[in-house]
Amino acid sequence: MQRLPEYLKKGIIDTEKTKTVRHVLKDNCLNTVCESARCPNKSECYAKNTATFLIMGKNCTRNCRFCNISCALPEPLNPEEPQKIADAVLKLSLKYVVITSVTRDDLPDGGANHFASVIKQIKKADSKVRTEVLTPDFKGNKNSIDTVIQEKPDVFNHNIETVPSLYRKARPQAEYSRSLEFLQYIKETSNILTKTGLMVGLGETKEELINTFEDLAGIKCDIVTIGQYIQPSKQHLEVVRYYKPCEYEELTLIARKIGIKHTFFSPLTRSSYNAASIFPEG
């Protein structure tokens, strides 16, 4: 494993707020992608009194080679989870909530109804809370996409993760074209903001990134995030290279010139990192 550059290192933050977040999560038996995916921003987000909820268990039915989330036998859905998340939202006084999940290819709807139930319970608890969902591709099932759209999340996020040439290597059970069509369908059938994220450092070229930006601009994706891939363990894909901070600035200029309105590119950017602050007002 390559030595991690200093600008990618973050210290542990332990405050009353981080303790409160941990207690609320533990008391409600809730999972977070912050813990399961070993997010480098976990302490910072907890210190801001927020977390990204991971629903439908800790085990994923796909085995993406960049992801730290466990690939094991899926857990039964917990019918109490939507209410528990709504309770946690109130206890943490959240005004912007990000809900993501493991991929559940074992479920007929991919878990779409469970996402819908979570949004519904949050809005029932506080109608002013903004919701952002980061969902799997539901195998491209438009009925499942519609199920989530009907609950009107403020942002519908689905990550394409990387450039097309790296799909077989990094996420062999997914399809680049299916993910693009997924985001395009949301935009064509609703007025919900669409969002996607990519990792860099897996071996993609600058030209491939530019082509991907053009694809995303072509389907009018509203928000795009980019961050550095960090190898979770020796069993995961190796980092081909670490991008320098100045390279993110260059990519930002390129993406905006191509037509992507809202970008958040930086070494430690993750899909839900500072999600509330990059929500386009108006």
Model description:
The protein is globular and about 45 Å long. The chain has helices spanning 16-27, 33-36, 42-47, 81-91, 112-125, 142-149, 167-170, 176-189, 206-218, 245-258, and strands at 31-32, 52-55, 96-101, 130-134, 155-157, 193-200, 223-228, 262-265. Helix 4 (81-91) runs parallel beside helix 5. It has an eight-stranded mixed sheet. The N and C termini lie far apart (44 Å). It is an alpha/beta fold and 282 residues long. The chain contains ten helices and eight strands.
Oligomer: single chain
What's the total number of strands?
Answer: 8
Biggest sheet, open or closed, and with what strands and sense?
8 strands, mixed
Rg for CA atoms: 18 Å
Order of helices and strands: HEHHEHEHEHEHHEHEHE
Supply the CATH architecture. Answer: Alpha-Beta Barrel
Overall residue-averaged pLDDT value: 91
Distance between the termini: 44 Å
Q: How big a fraction of the residues is strand?
A: 5-15%
Keywords for this entry:
single chain, alpha/beta, TIM Barrel, eight-stranded mixed beta sheet, 8 strands, globular
Topology at a glance:
Layout: H1 16-27, E1 31-32, H2 33-36, H3 42-47, E2 52-55, H4 81-91, E3 96-101, H5 112-125, E4 130-134, H6 142-149, E5 155-157, H7 167-170, H8 176-189, E6 193-200, H9 206-218, E7 223-228, H10 245-258, E8 262-265
In short:
This protein has 282 residues and is an alpha/beta fold. It has helices at residues 16-27, 33-36, 42-47, 81-91, 112-125, 142-149, 167-170, 176-189, 206-218, 245-258; strands at 31-32, 52-55, 96-101, 130-134, 155-157, 193-200, 223-228, 262-265. It has a single domain, classed as TIM Barrel (Alpha-Beta Barrel), CATH 3.20.20.70.
